[in-house]
C-alpha cells in the first residue's frame, strides 16, 4: 500500500512536521502485527523514515484460509 499526502506547507514547515508525524503515527502502527515502513519525503528532498517488523507471523497459508471458509458451523 502506498499513501501520498500533498501539502501546501513550506519546505521548512514540512521539515518540522515530518518527524512529529512519524512520532505520532509510528506507535499506532506498531500495535498492528504487520511489517511496514513509513517514509516521508519533504519538498526539499529530506527523508524521514520509521520501520517496524512484526513480532509474530500471523499470516495464514492459502490452504488454511480455504479450509476455514468451507468448514460447516
List keywords for this structure.
elongated; 2 strands; alpha+beta; 73 residues
What does this structure look like?
The protein is of the alpha+beta class and 73 residues long. It has one domain (11-69). Helices cover 38% and strands 16% of the residues. The protein has a two-stranded antiparallel ribbon. A hairpin with a 5-residue loop joins strand 1 (36-41) and strand 2 (47-52). The two termini are 34 Å apart. Mean pLDDT is 81; it is low at 65-69.
What's a quick, concise take on this entry?
With 73 residues, this protein is α+β, with helices and mostly antiparallel strands.
- Fraction of residues in helices? 25-40%
Silhouette: elongated
Q: What structural class should be given to the helix and strand makeup?
A: alpha+beta
pLDDT averaged over residues: 81
Number of strands: 2
Q: What portion of residues belong to β-strands? A: 15-25%
| Helix and strand element order | HEEH
Number of helices: 2
What value does the Rg take, in angstroms?
18 Å
Number of domains: 1
Low-confidence stretches: 65-69
The order of strands across the largest sheet is 1-2
Separation of the first and last Cα atoms: 34 Å
Describe the biggest sheet? 2 strands, antiparallel
Amino acid at each position: 500500500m502506498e499513501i501520498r499526502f500533498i501539502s501546501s506547507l513550506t519546505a521548512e514547515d514540512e521539515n518540522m512536521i515530518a518527524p512529529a508525524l512519524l512520532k505520532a503515527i509510528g506507535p499506532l502502527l506498531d500495535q498492528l502485527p504487520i511489517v511496514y515502513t513509513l517514509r516521508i519525503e519533504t519538498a526539499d528532498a529530506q527523508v524521514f523514515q520509521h520501520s517496524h517488523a512484526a513480532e509474530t507471523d500471523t499470516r495464514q497459508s492459502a490452504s488454511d484460509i480455504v479450509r476455514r471458509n468451507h468448514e460447516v458451523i
